[in-house]
């Protein structure tokens, strides 16, 4: 089975965009605005809370758009379009099963614990619920994963810019890293968030023309489905065709592993514990705004799938055997190919700017979360505690520089992997899933002891790695694709972490009940009892209504793709 490839295999050599002075002018204006936002945000940074969490002062619509923009890295845009060109409508599972329910769960269930406990990071919550060992291990694992993922975004940017604009890889890596470094170091999280709001609209401005013109070229949706049915079979434009247990399909996963591996374990592990996302919600001005942050983000997430899926389907319909060796293109050429074929100058400049914005949004989200976790959870807690607040702001800026430099290094490490989308899913199964099981058990089971957090996190991480690197890579178990292996690794890590937590809790003492207030479901802390702000009684400001509305809307979107 062929998979969308990145890494050593680059975009097709003939994909050189006919950019001119107008396109480069648009790109230059964007970079000037990005730096301008960084300088403007610098004036608001007076304390460490300002630098790392924007002083908890931002409105829900700002944090909501930043939340979705931080996820809209170009690895997702190019990777999901590539998945669509290869797998067809199966891509919708990553959005309507693999995102929306978890985002709603984060907003309705977990944000009251995060925000009410006044933690500055996700690992800090583990310090309150469990002990220092669980906190330190989770901090180290998260900081390591954040740098790896930031490097993936930088490397993906380099191969795309090299192919589309002819820039050398190292130039693209250094230039993009320098711009992200500049605006985060200047303005901290506020700069990153306001730039992510801008980047959200720039990304939409890039994807919408590609989608609309692509559909027009193939004769609309009916023309697209007719062409793909004739060349790829009936199941290519359905979400569930061929996913019965024992059935073969290109995705290498049946409905059970899709629902459990992707829809529950990987999805909830990513959206509820990935601090690169949660950090945006923690910067909201009050608990209600913090809860609404992922729920506001869920609505555009429902529809963004069309903007990344349709270009992949159009490319598969226009080029016979698209993605195979005989076609001259790879699966990840889908969006660049349509940019070359369909977009006039000016619009082309916006599209190129949108891709660069997407890469920078993904990298900025991980770098800003890295500097927060490293400074507040590792340096301040265990290395240099008790210093004045200004010291940690200065150190936060310094560690941002180090983090970006490390990301440049891991960008070259990412080149050793042939498929960065599978690489990202592998990282999530190693780091996010074990943290999720520790959170979910600790949050809903009072008896979970302080020691259980550390051993559950360690067991889940080791089990996921052993399943992937030993059982799968060594051929002990046979799985048809890396994505299928990631689903199984995630399930194995989750189960192992839960079993170890249960066993350790039986033989160790639980924390006193008074220390669990506001940290376990059914208990409340003063921070969670926050009265609604004036005007927060409007229906569109009620998290429960927003959350259930997103779930119902996502479920309704499945109907056209289910048969």
TrEMBL record:
- Coarse class of the protein's main subcellular location: membrane
Q: Which domain of life is it from?
A: Bacteria
Task: Enumerate the Gene3D superfamilies for this protein.
Answer: Sodium/glucose cotransporter
GO molecular function terms noted in the UniProt entry: D-glucose:sodium symporter activity
Q: How does it sit in the membrane?
A: Multi-pass membrane protein
Give the transmembrane ranges: 21-41, 61-82, 94-115, 136-161, 167-186, 198-215, 255-276, 297-319, 347-374, 395-417, 423-445, 452-472, 484-507, 544-561
**Where, per UniProt, does this protein localize?**
Membrane
Coiled-coil-forming residues are none
UniProt keyword list: Membrane, Transmembrane, Transmembrane helix
Q: Name one GO cellular component term.
A: plasma membrane
NAD: present as a keyword of the record? no
Give the protein family. Belongs to the sodium:solute symporter (SSF) (TC 2.A.21) family.
Q: Supply the name of the protein.
A: Sodium:solute symporter
């Amino acid at each position: 089975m062929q998979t969308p490839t990145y890494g050593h295999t680059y975009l097709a050599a003939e994909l050189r965009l006919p950019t001119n002075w107008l396109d480069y002018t648009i790109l230059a204006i964007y970079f000037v605005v990005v730096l301008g936002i960084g300088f403007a945000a610098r004036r608001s940074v007076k304390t460490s809370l300002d630098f790392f969490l924007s002083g908890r002062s931002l409105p829900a619509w700002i944090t909501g758009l930043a939340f979705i923009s931080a996820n809209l890295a170009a690895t997702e845009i190019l990777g999901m379009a590539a998945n669509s060109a290869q797998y067809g409508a199966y891509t919708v599972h990553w959005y309507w099963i693999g995102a929306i329910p978890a985002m709603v769960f984060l907003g309705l269930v977990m944000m009251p614990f995060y925000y009410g406990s006044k933690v500055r990071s996700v690992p800090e919550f583990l310090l309150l619920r469990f002990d220092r060992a669980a906190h330190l291990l989770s901090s180290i694992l998260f900081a390591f994963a954040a740098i790896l993922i930031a490097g993936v975004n930088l490397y993906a940017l380099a191969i795309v810019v090299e192919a589309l604009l002819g820039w050398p890889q190292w130039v693209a890596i250094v230039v993009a890293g320098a711009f992200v470094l500049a605006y985060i170091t200047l303005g901290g999280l506020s700069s990153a968030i306001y730039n992510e709001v801008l980047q959200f609209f720039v990304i939409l401005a890039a994807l919408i023309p590609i989608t609309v013109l692509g559909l027009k070229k193939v004769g609309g949706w009916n023309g697209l489905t007719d062409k793909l049915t004739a060349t790829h079979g009936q199941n290519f434009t359905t979400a569930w065709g061929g996913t019965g247990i024992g059935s073969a399909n290109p995705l290498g996963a049946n409905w059970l592993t899709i629902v459990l591996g992707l829809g529950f374990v990987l999805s909830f592990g990513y959206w509820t514990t990935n601090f690169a996302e949660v950090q945006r919600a923690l910067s909201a001005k009050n608990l209600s705004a913090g809860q609404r942050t992922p729920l506001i983000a869920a609505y555009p997430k429902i529809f963004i799938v069309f903007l990344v899926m349709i270009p992949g389907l159009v490319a598969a319909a226009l080029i016979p055997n698209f993605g195979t060796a005989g076609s001259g293109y790879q699966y990840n050429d889908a969006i660049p190919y349509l940019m070359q074929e369909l977009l006039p100058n000016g619009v082309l400049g916006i599209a190129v700017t949108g891709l660069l914005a997407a890469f920078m949004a993904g990298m900025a989200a991980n770098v800003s979360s890295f500097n927060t976790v490293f400074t507040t959870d590792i340096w301040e807690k265990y290395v240099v505690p008790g210093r004045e607040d200004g010291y940690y702001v200065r150190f936060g800026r310094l560690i941002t520089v180090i983090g970006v430099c490390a990301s440049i290094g891991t960008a070259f490490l990412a080149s050793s992997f042939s498929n960065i989308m599978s690489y990202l899913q592998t990282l999530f199964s190693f780091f996010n899933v074990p943290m999720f099981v520790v959170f979910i058990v600790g949050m809903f089971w009072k008896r979970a002891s302080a020691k259980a957090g550390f051993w559950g996190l360690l067991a889940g991480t080791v089990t996921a790695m052993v399943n992937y690197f030993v059982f799968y890579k060594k051929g002990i178990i046979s799985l048809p694709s890396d994505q299928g292996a990631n689903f199984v690794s995630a399930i194995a890590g989750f189960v192992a972490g839960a079993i170890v937590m249960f066993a350790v809790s039986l033989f160790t003492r639980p924390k006193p009940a008074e220390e669990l207030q506001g940290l376990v479901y059914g208990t409340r802390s003063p921070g969670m009892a926050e009265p609604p702000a004036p005007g927060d009684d409007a229906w569109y400001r009620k998290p429960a209504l927003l959350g259930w509305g997103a779930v119902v809307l996502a479920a309704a979107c499945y109907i056209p793709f289910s048969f």
